[in-house]
Every structure is written in structure tokens, then in C-alpha cells.
Design a protein that fits this description.
Elements (H helix, E strand, L loop, with lengths): L5 H7 L2 E3 L18 E6 L1 H11 L9 E5 L7 E3 L9 E2 L2 E2 L4 E2 L2 E2 L15 E9 H4 L10 E2 L1 H10 L8 E5 L10 H6 L3 E2 L1 H8 L5 E4 L11 H9 L3 E4 L4 H5 L4 E6 L9 E3 L3 E3 L1
Parallel strand pairs: 9-11, 10-12, 11-13, 13-14
Antiparallel strand pairs: 1-17, 2-3, 4-14, 4-16, 5-6, 7-8, 9-15, 15-17
Helix pairs in contact: 4-6, 6-7
């Protein structure tokens, strides 16, 4: 019996959408501007203008505009998003900042246009399920022992993997702004060190601020010191409900020249 072609394998794969929706009033980090999307052109007014100009009478279009930071909702962070004493991976980034983004960054630093499409083996560490809970306790700092226990159940983490961490707080993204923004659980500092030591290429989590109790310590450990990509505000509920500890995750950040982050809609194939 012949091996299935890539097209046949993909046709049989289950596809999980790991992205959250975007809408006016959605929860964003309190330091960030609100996400805003508005219709700029309305059908009835465009049709009137087209009719007056003799452009295909009766035809029209609608166009919206979006105003947002690149860190609203489900998004992808590069190491240059954060710094410690203005340094990222030991490099002072201040000479490379421009109003339009970052320019001429020295290796290993880079901006979004240099990030290739990412197709990665992914391991789901469902910490809430490991503790026999639907959602981790409020402000719970995940421990290295919890991550290690999840990883053992999933068969281990390989260097270059995408590691997905489920706290359970993704379920509140659309339903409870206060819980999502203020009461989340996340990586404790020791857990962030443990995870960074496994050498993943990408760490994804279903909360907004990655770590607790200090919201930026995990960013410093994973992004700034180790240069590991980060995704936040993921929706991991369906993937976890189906017990999919392994998947192939596809992430396509926008190639924004000089950019430090991108809105993104990742998917997992199982």
C-alpha cells in the first residue's frame, strides 16, 4: 500500500483554529491602545458615487479600517518586543529604532519581515488538566514540576518545538474581561527558566501576560535572554478537549518591515 501524498494527508487532517476573534471593546493589555475597526466606505454612498461617475451603475463596495497595536488579541512576539536595560540577547537595541520600526538589526536579532512561515511540531502542555482542574487557580504560578509532568505525559519536548501551554483562561477571552485581564494564571519564573532550557523555537499560551506574579519576568527569560518567539492569547480549548497533545502548528506572521510583533491566526493540524 502506497504512502498517502501530502495533499491526501492534509485532506484527512483535523484543523484547529488557535486564534481568538477581534472586535471593538475586546480585552487588550491596559498599557496598549484599544483595538478599533470601523467601516470607512458604506455600500449606499459608494453606489451613489459610482452611479454619478458612470462606473458600472449599481455596483458598490464596503471598506473598513483598523487601528490597533500589534499586540492585540492573538499575536506573535519577537525578542525585540522587550528588553532589559535596553539590551536584547546582549545587544543594545536603541541604535536600531526608528519611527517606522527597527532597521539594520545585527544578528541574531531580526524584525518580522525576516521571519519565515513557521511549520512546527507542537506539544500541548495542558497544565490545568494535569492538576485535574478545568482552569488553574487565580494568579497560580506554574511550576517546573507541573511542566515536566505534562511534558512526560506528552512524550517530551524536542529542541525547536512549538510548546503550547494551557491554563484554561482562554475561555474567558470573550466572556469575562476582568478575569482575563486581571486574574490569569501563568508561568512562574522557575518554570520559564525550565521551559527556555528545553530549546523550543516558539512558546504559545492562552493568557495575555505569559507569567505571574511578575508579568514581565517570563518575557525577559524567554524572549530577551533566549530569543525564543512567543504567541499569546491563544484559544487552546478545542485542542485540549480532544486530547491532542501533538500537532503540527502553522504560524504566518505578517512580514511587517521593522516590526516587533504581528496579529496572527495560527492553526494546528492533527
Amino acid at each position: 500500500m502506497s504512502e498517502p501524498t501530502l495533499q491526501e494527508a492534509l485532506a484527512r487532517a483535523r484543523v484547529y483554529d488557535l486564534g481568538q476573534p477581534y472586535w471593538n471593546g475586546m480585552p487588550v493589555h491596559p498599557f496598549d491602545p484599544p483595538f478599533q475597526s470601523y467601516l470607512y466606505r458604506y455600500h449606499e454612498y459608494v453606489r451613489k458615487s459610482f452611479d454619478e461617475m458612470g462606473i458600472e451603475p449599481g455596483f458598490s463596495d464596503a471598506i473598513s479600517i483598523m487601528i490597533t497595536s500589534n499586540h492585540a488579541g492573538t499575536h506573535f512576539d519577537l525578542p525585540i518586543h522587550m528588553s532589559q536595560d535596553n539590551r536584547v540577547m546582549g545587544i543594545d537595541v536603541t541604535p536600531y529604532q526608528r519611527d517606522t520600526g527597527f532597521k539594520d538589526l545585527p544578528e541574531p536579532l531580526h524584525s518580522l519581515e525576516q521571519v519565515p512561515p513557521l511549520v512546527l511540531r507542537a506539544v500541548l502542555l495542558d497544565v490545568a488538566a494535569f492538576r485535574n482542574e478545568e482552569v488553574l487557580p487565580e494568579r497560580h504560578p506554574i511550576t517546573p514540576e507541573e511542566l515536566e509532568g505534562c511534558a512526560e505525559q506528552a512524550g517530551g519536548i524536542r529542541e525547536g518545538d512549538c510548546v503550547l501551554i494551557r491554563t484554561g483562561y482562554g475561555r474567558y477571552f470573550e466572556t469575562d474581561r476582568d478575569i482575563y485581564l486581571n486574574r490569569w494564571a501563568g508561568l512562574g519564573d522557575a518554570a520559564a527558566h525550565w521551559l527556555a532550557g528545553r530549546g523550543p523555537r516558539l512558546v504559545g499560551i492562552d493568557n495575555l501576560s505569559l507569567g505571574v506574579p511578575a508579568p514581565f519576568a517570563s518575557h525577559r527569560i524567554i524572549l530577551v535572554e533566549k530569543g525564543i518567539y512567543v504567541m499569546k492569547s491563544l484559544n487552546l480549548e478545542a485542542l485540549a478537549a480532544d486530547g491532542c497533545t501533538h500537532s503540527t502548528v502553522i504560524v504566518l506572521p505578517l512580514p511587517i518591515r521593522g516590526g516587533e510583533a504581528s496579529l496572527v491566526r495560527p492553526i494546528a493540524l492533527v
